[in-house]
Amino acid sequence: AFKPDLDSNAKTQTADDTGEKPTGIRIPGYPSITIEADKKDVQMNLMNPEGNPCYFTFTLVLKDTDETIYQSKMVEPGKAITQITLSKELSAGEYPAILKISTAAMDDGRAMNGANVETVLKVQ
């Protein structure tokens, strides 16, 4: 059977339930993400919305250099990672970035629709 490599940092989080049960996969939007400068351990809310039929894996890539500065393991629906460790410290400034969300079906691990979410890392 498919055994997901679950991220132990993911904690249960409940979103406001609007009563809608969307079909397909809900991808959260991240217009910008603010983190602390000159630190590798930063707070960031990477959520897999409740009700999704898949695990999320998050990869954070700096757009200018195409450098991956963070990759999670699998996050279950209804859970979120709030503390991450970057591969390097970033000095203060704004960095265009892409949060790549890849998905894996909960029953067999096959890839489903993922997304590349454009964001700006506001480092201060």
Notes on the structure:
- This protein is an all-beta fold and 124 residues long.
- 0% of the residues lie in helices and 46% in strands.
- It is built from no helices and eight strands.
- It has strands at residues 10-12, 33-35, 41-48, 54-62, 67-71, 79-85, 93-105, 115-123.
- The strands form two sheets. Strands 2-8-7-4-5 form a five-stranded mixed β-sheet, with no helix packed on it.
- The termini are far apart.
- The model is unreliable at 16-21 (pLDDT under 50).
How do you describe this structure in short?
The protein has 124 residues and is mainly beta. 0% of the residues lie in helices and 46% in strands. It contains no helices and eight strands.
Topology, please?
Blueprint: E1 10-12, E2 33-35, E3 41-48, E4 54-62, E5 67-71, E6 79-85, E7 93-105, E8 115-123
What labels would you give this structure?
124 residues, mainly beta, 5-stranded mixed sheet, 3-stranded antiparallel sheet
Structural class: mainly beta
Secondary structure tally, helices = 0
* Rg from alpha-carbon coordinates: 15 Å
Q: Please count the beta strands (DSSP E, at least 2 residues each).
A: 8
Proportion of β residues? over 45%
Name the helicity range.
Answer: under 10%
* Mean pLDDT over all positions: 91
Oligomer: single chain
Uncertain stretches: 16-21
Biggest pleated-sheet summary: 5 strands, mixed
Strand order within the widest sheet?
Answer: 2-8-7-4-5
Query: Can you tell me the overall shape?
Result: elongated
- Compute the separation of the termini in Å: 45 Å
**Order of SSEs, N→C?**
EEEEEEEE
